[in-house]
Amino acid sequence: MDSTVLTTIAATGFTVAFFHAAIPTHWLPFVLVSRARGWGGPKTFAVTVLAGLGHVALTTLLGLCVAWFGFQLDEKLGRLFPWIAGGTLIAIGLYYFWRQWRGGGVCHHALLGGHHHPSEHCGREEGHSHWDDELKDSALVSNRAGDWTAITGLLVMLTLSPCEGFLPVYLSAVQFGWRGFVVLSLILAVATLTGMTLFAWLALLGLGKIEVKNLERYEAALLGVLFSILGGLLIVLEHQHG
Question: Rounded to two decimals, what is the model's pTM?
């Protein structure tokens, strides 16, 4: 039963991390900067992976804090912890549903000054991305700045924007101790880097008009469904175990 639960948590974590990485903010800026600066494919992928590793590292560090806090609660609450963790995940799921209802999704903009209504401008629209406009006057594409300035900007942009949607997944695996934490951290890294490089590669191949704006627009609803299911599963399994 324990292996089934961990497998379910791991699958949920992979889904959350992969679809989060599919959001254009995680790969489109790299493609646009690459085209503007004439980078080759290997350099573009190297910068994308390096930024992805920074993104994963900060998320994992925050996940470590979540896991440690969960361990303390699990030690004090014992059999009550799965009920509390499950209820918390359901509450987080409802929160994401509320965000979806209020704003149309989760729009990720980091350090480029882009803040607008996600249901109106996130993703690609009519073959044109709002990132073209946001990067137009940025040092990331300006010929006045060197490549290292652009690379540093991209690294900082993504590193300082952790995958907030993955953090609750760490809470669900507290009952598995450090083994669960390590498994989820590896899944986070694999899913994030796979998603980022896959969509960057497709864009570089000329398939950049892949319809992803609906994914970005409904990301909050997707997270709401996943966390609600995961929370309910923890409660049901604990009830059966008890």
Answer: 0.78
